[in-house]
Structures are given as structure tokens and as C-alpha cells.
Design brief:
single chain; mainly alpha; 9 helices
């Protein structure tokens, strides 16, 4: 790994690391001051709940909830910034806002939603669909890694798998759909599959050149043969008579 690649690799972790630190700092403040910022969560179809589109991914119910979201959020965000460079911020913001907006619109009468799991689902499906659309080796490898590590996330998009638990499956489902949509919108960004093209014109010129050269050589050979035949004919004539000699074939 050269120096430029190292800077790119470690640079892709800066924003995700700062984001995770912010999430943990918020939870420490809640615990330290024995308070809760849950009121800043996302309550669908209410004016007050609109602020939750921005703030709900920063809030978590407890340490277990925060821990379960921190690792995938860090890894998926780092992959985003590594592969997409300057476009990564726009993609991340879209995953954040579109997921929150759709939850606010469609998740009616479901209480207050908090947690970054919706963004995690959006990033996971974005990477997976991006790898399928591009068929670029590195993106395909990363998408397979996402499936290997977080394939179980698919069980979180239905309430039937978690009966009696306060899990925001709406955020999971809508976040996953948002990631797919954004992957289609940015399918021409990031690493692209290499397409190799043969230069047909050059090949045609080479073939034509070879054929013309062969024709010229054949013409020279034919001319030499005709000259030899004519000389033999002239040498074989004498006093008005012709003498033909036939060469017998060896069996």
C-alpha cells in the first residue's frame, strides 16, 4: 500500500469516527445528567416530529442499542467514503434524510422513533445494490462482505420476527428501500467496471496491408515465371522447328 492509498484509507475513517464519537458523547450526557433527549426523536406525521428527521439517528435507548448500531455504521460509512470520495457526503446525507422523511410520512401512529439503524440499513442496501449494478470487482467484494456480516439485517424489516418488541422495523424497511433508490441514482459514480475494447480499425488496416503485400509478391512471382518461360521458349527454337520436352513425374 503506497502513501496515497494509505491517506485515502485512513482518511475514509475520519468522518465515521467523529460521528460515532458524537453518538457516544450524547449518550454519556444523557446518562451523566440523568436526562433523555428522546423527545427529539421522529414522531411520524406531526410537526414536532419533523426535527426527528435530523436528530433521531443520534439518539439511542440504551448502551446495547448504541453498541449494536455503532460498528455497522462505522464500517459502512468508512466504505462509503473510501469508494465514493467527494460524493460520499452527499450520499450519506441522502441516506440520512430520505430514510427519516419516509418514516415520518408512512409510519403513522407508531410512536417516537430513535436510533441510527435506519441509516445502517440504507447504507447496507446501497453498497449491496451498487456492487450488483457496477459488477466492479472491488465493489462486488465489498457487497459480499456486507452480506456476510449483516445479511441477518433482512429479518429486521418485518414486525413478525420481533413480536412484542419496540423495534422500528419501519425505519429498517424504508431505510433499505432508500438505499436501493440512491444506489440507482449514483450508479455512474464510484469505481466502475473496466471495459476492454479491441481496436478493429487497426486490425483491418493490418489485414488489408498484409493482403496487398501478398498480392504484390504474387505478382512479382508470376512475372518472374513468365520471364523464365519466355526465355526457355526462345532458347529452344532452332531453324524453324520447335522441340518440346516433357518432364516425367516420379512415382
Amino acid at each position: 500500500m503506497d502513501e496515497e492509498e494509505k491517506r485515502r484509507f485512513y482518511g475514509s475513517m475520519v468522518f465515521p469516527a467523529l460521528l460515532i464519537l458524537l453518538l457516544w458523547a450524547i449518550k454519556l450526557i444523557e446518562v451523566g445528567f440523568q436526562t433523555s433527549f428522546a423527545d427529539y426523536g421522529l414522531e411520524p406525521q406531526t410537526v414536532q416530529g419533523l426535527r426527528g428527521i435530523l436528530f433521531s439517528p443520534l439518539l439511542h435507548a440504551d448502551w446495547a442499542h448504541l453498541s449494536s448500531n455503532s460498528v455497522p455504521l462505522f464500517l459502512l460509512s468508512s466504505g462509503l467514503f473510501y469508494y465514493y470520495g467527494k460524493k460520499a457526503k452527499a450520499i450519506f446525507i441522502l441516506c440520512w434524510l430520505v430514510t427519516g422523511l419516509w418514516v415520518w410520512i408512512f409510519a403513522k401512529d407508531t410512536g417516537i422513533h430513535i436510533g441510527a439503524s435506519g441509516v445502517v440499513y440504507a447504507l447496507a442496501t446501497f453498497h449491496f445494490m451498487g456492487g450488483l449494478l457496477r459488477r466492479e470487482p472491488r465493489m462486488m467484494a465489498f457487497s459480499l462482505l456486507v452480506v456476510f456480516l449483516y445479511g441477518s439485517l433482512v429479518w429486521g424489516i418485518s414486525p413478525d420476527f420481533f413480536p412484542g418488541k419496540n423495534i422500528s422495523w419501519e425505519s429498517h424497511l424504508l431505510g433499505g428501500l432508500a438505499g436501493i433508490l440512491i444506489a440507482f441514482a449514483y450508479r455512474d459514480e464510484g469505481p466502475q467496471r473496466k471495459i476492454y475494447k479491441w481496436d478493429e480499425d487497426d486490425e483491418t488496416e493490418d489485414v488489408d496491408m498484409d493482403y496487398s503485400e501478398q498480392s504484390e509478391i504474387q505478382e512479382e512471382v508470376n512475372t518472374d515465371d513468365q520471364t523464365k518461360i519466355q526465355n526457355n521458349f526462345e532458347n529452344s527454337t532452332g531453324e524453324g522447328t520447335f522441340k518440346y520436352k516433357f518432364r516425367e513425374k516420379e512415382s
